[in-house]
């Protein structure tokens, strides 16, 4: 049978990117309060905070400072409204920020009740808060400073009980995981904290402190009844129960079809392929030349359960779900470096030990300038999700992967059947620089989220989580994978196996494209190709279910054209990316435009609500001066938790719309790169260029010569030269 005619994706869309001036816009900002009202409200609050700072014991505050919670009015979430000048004038130190809810004294329009806003944590001496109070009352205060004061809803001390995130069911009530606002060079703070812990009868873990910019993480052994007293230490941000490692999903299911006897295929690699890492429970070197196992130093022998998990995860990445009609496994055109990071001691620090092993391996590879191009993490901690809570797993991995040189998939967790918050994604699935994968219940056209697959949303930025779903198995349709240890095909299920399956699809595209695309571009391609039905909830399925194999990404039907743009944007230099819709389409044609932007960002872990330091502001125009509302709050099926100003800081933008071809006259995207540091806007010249990926898919139903029309009008566009000698079958 002759192959079905199809289009191959266009690989050089960046040829359509040029510079453009950024339009001005926006009217005057509504202000809920004037300076006279703020003097009446904030003066007693600042006086109380200054008094607390004067009275605080040096045991709790080695620098004689207190931490205050400065809550902004919900109208002023954008970085341009950050009250930087009045804080700097008073000599106050911004420690971090996070999401919170407040019922403002005055609301705009008909808004009532609690609203999402930002809470800024600031540290200062009594003199600092008194200076802020004097500035507030100064009749000669400059207008700009007055406006900053009108953005503030309240200024209150950060009480110790507000810092506690304790699980009453923890198996380790005498151990806590503490997050401090301190850096590696804050020796006085770290020493004072250690001394205070000892005074309470506690002990710092031998593991010591782990740092990301602005935060320190440490495990502490301490009598449970002393934990509230520990939380009074001023530089503590949060005190959590110790995280446990997730348990494996017990999927009670049997294979309903008979599978042939299979053996490992011989490796057919003739040259080094992309570096691929799996972090899991080991393989016992059972995959021959396809896998190299590397064990973290000091690990005890693998347990049976950990080994089975590691083997099955690795098999899903190498061979995918086994097709019962195939009599042999196809040799994958890549090999895997399997880092055995399990088992860990059944101790309070088990999840943190595993994280250390993963970060160490990633860092060694990056430091040697041989970073992994692909990685998979199918394990993580059990951690109830809080919007204001950046977990150590999340922040350290986001920091490690911010350079964009690795596409790392991560399983979001198998707790989706639990109620409410308990069913939400687990770290590191809430990370913005990882590709968070949930599980679909079947490979067939009528699919849903597997009931066990953890749900979103994430925090903003990173609101849409999971990013996508991949087939993960279900009781009705378990995933069949080949286990060399079992000597045949076994039934598995869980997000642990959906995650490597998603990475396998990305690897397939990488092989077919001869590694032409950056890792972030591969992620954008998978998101752009994901399918989602009208009845699916964004919190359940993310951007949708991805194809099992790369063919549906690299190739499209004749009336569909997919274009890949790989761009680099600079602050202060907006860009225009032309959407290659050809003129002269048949009358009545309605064109569907789907677009996906992806990028990696440096993160401010101390600023949960302003977590990413870089963002893209994208506007779409169907004709000069005529906007097309492709990106905006309408991308999200639920806007309950979507905060104003957050969308532009998400590292993924994805949406589609349909428009009459007659309305399209040289359509384009207007792209602007924005930067911030510790929630503040920064100077353009201080920011680094940012690579990004844009995928545009055009569909003109019934126009079978769409590719011909596109390339005739935009002759610079070239299709991808596909490596036909390397078959990558998504079901083999």
TrEMBL record:
GO-annotated biological processes: proteolysis
InterPro entries: Peptidase_S8/S53_dom, Peptidase_S8/S53_dom_sf, Y4bN_pept_dom
CDD domains: Peptidases_S8_Subtilisin_like_2
Peptidase S8/S53 domain segment(s): 306-544
Listed SUPFAM superfamilies: Subtilisin-like
GO molecular function, one term: serine-type endopeptidase activity
Matching Gene3D superfamilies: Peptidase S8/S53 domain
Protein's UniProt name: Peptidase S8/S53 domain-containing protein
């Amino acid at each position: 049978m002759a192959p079905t005619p199809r289009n191959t994706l266009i690989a050089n869309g960046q040829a359509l990117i040029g510079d453009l001036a950024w339009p001005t816009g926006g009217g005057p900002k509504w202000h809920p309060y004037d300076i006279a009202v703020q003097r009446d409200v904030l003066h007693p609050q600042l006086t109380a905070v200054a008094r607390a700072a004067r009275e605080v014991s040096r045991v709790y505050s080695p620098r004689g400072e207190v931490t205050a919670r400065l809550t902004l009015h919900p109208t002023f979430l954008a970085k341009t409204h950050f009250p930087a000048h009045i804080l700097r004038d008073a000599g106050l130190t911004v420690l971090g920020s996070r999401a919170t809810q407040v019922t403002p004294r005055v609301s705009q329009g008909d808004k009532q009740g609690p609203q999402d806003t930002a809470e800024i944590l600031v540290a200062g001496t009594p003199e600092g808060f008194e200076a802020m109070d004097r500035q507030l009352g100064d009749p000669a205060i400059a207008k700009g400073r007055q406006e900053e004061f009108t953005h503030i809803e309240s200024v209150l001390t950060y009480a110790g009980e507000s810092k506690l995130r304790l699980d009453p069911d923890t198996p380790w009530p005498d151990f806590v995981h503490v997050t401090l606002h301190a850096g590696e060079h804050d020796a006085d703070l770290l020493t004072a904290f250690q001394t205070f812990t000892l005074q309470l009868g506690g002990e710092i873990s031998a593991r010591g402190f782990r740092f990301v910019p602005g935060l320190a993480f440490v495990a502490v052994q301490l009598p449970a009844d002393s934990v509230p007293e520990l939380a009074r230490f001023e530089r503590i941000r949060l005190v959590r129960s110790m995280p446990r490692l997730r348990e494996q999903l017990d999927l009670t299911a049997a294979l309903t079809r008979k599978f042939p006897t299979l053996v490992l295929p011989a490796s057919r690699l003739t040259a080094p392929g992309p570096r691929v890492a799996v972090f899991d429970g080991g393989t016992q070197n059972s995959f021959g030349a396809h896998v190299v196992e590397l064990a973290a130093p000091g690990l005890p022998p693998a347990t049976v359960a950990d080994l089975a998990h590691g083997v099955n995860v690795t098999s899903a990445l190498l061979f995918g779900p086994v097709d019962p009609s195939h009599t042999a496994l196809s040799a994958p055109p890549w090999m895997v470096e399997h880092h055995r990071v399990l088992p860990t001691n059944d101790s309070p620090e088990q999840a943190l030990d595993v994280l250390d092993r993963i970060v160490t391996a990633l860092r060694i590879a990056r430091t040697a300038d041989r970073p992994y191009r692909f990685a998979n993490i199918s394990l993580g901690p059990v951690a109830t999700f809080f919007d204001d809570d950046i977990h150590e797993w999340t922040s350290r991995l986001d920091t490690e992967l911010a350079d964009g040189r690795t596409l790392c998939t991560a399983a979001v967790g198998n707790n989706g059947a639990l109620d409410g918050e308990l069913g939400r994604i687990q770290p590191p699935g809430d990370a913005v620089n990882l590709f968070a994968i949930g599980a679909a219940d079947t490979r067939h056209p009528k699919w849903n989220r597997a009931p066990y697959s953890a749900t979103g949303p994430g925090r903003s930025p990173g609101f849409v989580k999971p990013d996508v779903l991949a087939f993960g198995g279900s009781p009705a349709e378990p995933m069949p994978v080949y286990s060399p240890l079992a000597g045949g095909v076994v039934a598995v299920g869980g997000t642990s196996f959906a995650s490597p399956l998603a990475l396998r699809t990305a690897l397939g595209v990488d092989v077919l494209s001869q590694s032409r695309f950056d890792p972030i571009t591969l992620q954008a391609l998978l998101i752009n190709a994901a399918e989602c039905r009208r009845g699916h909830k964004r919190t359940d399925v993310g951007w949708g279910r991805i194809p099992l194999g790369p063919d549906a990404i690299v190739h499209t039907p004749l009336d569909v054209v997919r274009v890949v743009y790989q761009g680099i944007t600079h602050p202060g230099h907006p860009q225009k990316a032309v959407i290659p819709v050809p003129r002269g389409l048949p009358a009545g044609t309605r064109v569907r435009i789907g677009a996906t932007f992806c990028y990696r960002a440096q993160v401010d872990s101390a600023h949960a609500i302003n977590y990413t330091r870089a963002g893209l502001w994208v506007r779409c125009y169907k004709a000069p001066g005529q906007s097309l509302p492709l990106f905006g709050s309408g991308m999200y099926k639920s806007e309950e938790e979507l905060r104003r100003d957050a969308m532009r800081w998400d590292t993924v933008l994805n949406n589609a719309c349909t428009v009459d071809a007659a309305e399209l006259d040289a359509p384009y995207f207007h792209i602007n790169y924005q930067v911030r540091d510790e929630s503040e806007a920064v100077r353009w010249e201080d920011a680094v260029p940012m690579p990004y990926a844009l995928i545009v898919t055009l569909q003109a139903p019934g126009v079978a010569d769409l590719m011909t029309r596109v390339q005739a009008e935009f002759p610079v566009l070239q299709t991808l030269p596909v490596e036909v000698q390397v078959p990558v079958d998504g079901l083999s």
